[in-house]
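2024-03-11 09:14:02 INFO queue: dequeued item Long Rib domain-containing protein, len=225
2024-03-11 09:14:02 INFO validating residues
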Amino acid sequence: MSKLHKLAAAALALGMSAPITGGFVAPAMAVEKQVHYEDQQVRPGHSVSVAPATPLPEDAGADFDQSGIPEGWYVSINEDNGELTVSAAPNAKNGDSYTARVKIVDIDGHVEWTEVTFTVSEDGNADSALPPADSDGPQVTYEDATVEPGRSVQVNPQGDTNPDLGYDISQAGIPKGWYVTIAENGILTVSAGGDAKSGDSYTVKIKVVDGDGKLTWTDSTITVK
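2024-03-11 09:14:37 INFO prediction written
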């Protein structure tokens, strides 16, 4: 169960209402502390991550409205700390932009919406560890998964998989005590540290390359039960 769903369950137990979005935008309610993000610039085919300028309260979780994401862009969020990662399409042009609507929900069911805009620029931020993706790269994705402390979980690739594909992972940011590997057939194995706590998570960035050298980046978030 994700942190947001745990918060919703707790709120309902208190007789509150804590709407969790799919595609629908829940109305905002008054909150004591506003959360905001600084707008960002990103290079075509690259990713940029931004954390809230004001940290999330410990009893709050983050999500985002998945409507309106431009074709070829990828967006993910860390529910625990609100860090948002946006990858611009490789064919995105200077001046193209995407405004992410981020929802913050606290234990009392209070909802706050905030926005952050990502604008494409050749001078924008880029994750230098990640080569740019190709617009016609392999259509492969991974599901998110959960794992117990000190144990492992495997995640299989989904979509247009075939024997000609090659797989690799970015080693950046792997938590201490965690181990992440990927097999030749694309099966991802993640072992959580023995001292990992419930709600800890790590998002694996996975590189998929086809026989023509076309590249796609995808990801899978592994959360500790």
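2024-03-11 09:14:37 INFO annotate: The first helix runs from residue 3 to 13.
2024-03-11 09:14:38 INFO item closed
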